[in-house]
Amino acid sequence: MTTGRRAAPLSAPVRAQRRLAWALCAPAAVVILAVTAYPVAYAVYLSLQRYDLRFPNDSRFVGLANYTTVLTSPLWWEALAVTAVITVVSVAIELVVGLAVALVMHRAIVGRGLVRAVVLIPYGIVTVVAAFGWRYAWTPGTGYLSRLFGDATPLASQVWGIVVIISAEVWKTTPFMALLLLAGLALVPDELLRAAKVDGANAWQRLTRVTLPLMRPAILVALLFRTLDAFRIFDNIYVLTAGAYDTRSVSILGYDNLFTALNLGVGSSLSVLIFLVVALIAVIFVKGFGTAAPGGKTGR
Amino acid sequence: MAAATATRTAGRAASAQPRRRRRSAAPARVLLGWSAANLVIVGVALVPLLWLVSLSFKTPASITDGSFIPNEWTLENYRGIFRQSLFTRALLNSLGIALISTALAVALGSMAAYAIARLEFPGKRLLVGMALLIAMFPQISLISPLFNLWRILRIFDTWVGLIIPYLTFSLPLAIYTLSAFFREIPWDLEKAAQVDGATPAQAFLRVIAPLAAPGMVTTAILVFIFCWNDFLFAISLTSTERSRTVPAAIAFFTGASQFAQPIGSIAAAAVVITVPVLVFVLLFQRRIVAGLTSGAVKG
């Protein structure tokens, strides 16, 4: 998109165009920066202070002490591990299931509209609402799922709690994954698949040798989106277990630290650490796997 | 390797035509397979929702029977929540906050998206990259600083206090979706308008804005769903009924007595805030699918 107009001095219309462009973008840019860049900088500042909301007058600069507190705490590492497990497992399941759903939607001759409509249901439901549905489904004495499995109480153990959390997360977000993959699937030319079939490739070979390689960019973008989104998981855990039985994610830990422990200094250092981990994941995706950041190239 | 195979096979695509009829050799079985897959997807997507609907119609006595279909039906749960200001006020807050945020996000987003899709200017890449960064930002990182800032600025527990973060986090979504839609608009019309003497601003307002309306509606729906869905900001930046939205209020529901589980009320409230959104989503399903995927695939 950086074509032309480089050599010549800016003509009046070009300057007018630039002024208009900046004027149009300014409000959005200001709002975005004011509510993210500034608070993040403020979080960095707070994270270097001892700041307990119960003793606000006793605040002072403590250097990296809050970070030491967090990084030497088993709570942080446990939460990070739980978050990593939830993220990796749910995104992996979503990729496989989402691809299957996308293939069904792509190939379906009958009921295509119905599937697309129904698939949007989990997307349209408020996460908290869906989470309450799952919680009551697994509450012994109340839930149909719990009754089905002999009054099971999965939400009262770490491993099964995480399994239920992952299932709730997968149910809610697979549609989004499927729709992103469906869009990628639409870019695979039908003639190629037909030709591969003529050449003797079976369905599995056509999927792994033709469809998936061509979908690689779409898959990577979907993975990047969903990985970073899953890493922030909060609503589902808050409702399902409230972080009990060591099922805290880093977001739950950050929330608890602020509103239960009322420690703004440590809470802010948690904020900064979570931000750094997310940035690291993004860098790995973009640099390591060569994920084309959407919007990176604005031309068509 | 795969790409090489792809191009090689592409060359033969033309000669594949006569053999195509073979494909319909086992249509009944294939059709059955896809239909079964459809059915599974429909079931898995619907059952959790139907379970909440079922809970919302159960009587207090039968709510713990674990049956998927209510044995005794009642509307008392619905009457109950609409008698409580905890719920009605939250519904008002949710609607007001989500609608205002949506209007602002679409307005500001349209301006920026127009510039991105249409104009050449330095800083464009920076803006797009920044929007992407925000879309993936861990919201929990903002909770501590915003909680403190909002108390200092005295907008803690107000509509404004929620509208501001919602606007920030929906703007990237709005900008992406809108700029993808805006690129599809026949821009020659804009040039024609400018030849006829309209300024760029006039060309935007008189010619392009009406053409852009479908994209704006889609974006509005996506942004509204985002705001309607939020829970983290809603519980962190509010403390009373004054500005608490429904997802947050539901988490504070209590039963008729301290010992009664508010399952029926929560289920009824859940259905009330879910059904209208679902109707909307289903009515606009084509647009929503296009909107959700446009930003990611076309960039």
Quick overview of this protein structure:
The complex is a heterodimer of chains A (300) and B (299). Chain A is an all-alpha fold.
Using the 3D structure, state the CATH architecture of the largest domain in chain B. Orthogonal Bundle
Provide the number of structural domains of chain B.
Answer: 2
What is the CATH superfamily of the largest domain in chain A?
MetI-like
What portion of the residues of chain A fall into strands of 2 or more residues? under 5%
Helix run count of chain B: 13
H and E string of chain B:
HHHHHHHHHHHHH
Class derived from helix and strand content of chain A: mainly alpha
Q: What is the strand arrangement across the widest sheet of chain A?
A: 1-2
- Output the radius of gyration of chain B: 25 Å
CATH topology of the largest domain in chain A: MetI-like fold
Biggest interface pair, counts: A-B, 122 and 114 residues
Percent of residues in beta strands of chain B: under 5%
Major sheet size, sense and barrel closure of chain B: none
Number of strands of chain B: 0
The helix fraction of chain A, in percent, is over 70%
Fold-level CATH name of the largest domain in chain B: MetI-like fold
If helices are DSSP runs of H or I spanning 4 or more residues, what is the number of helices of chain A? 13
The outline of chain B comes out as globular
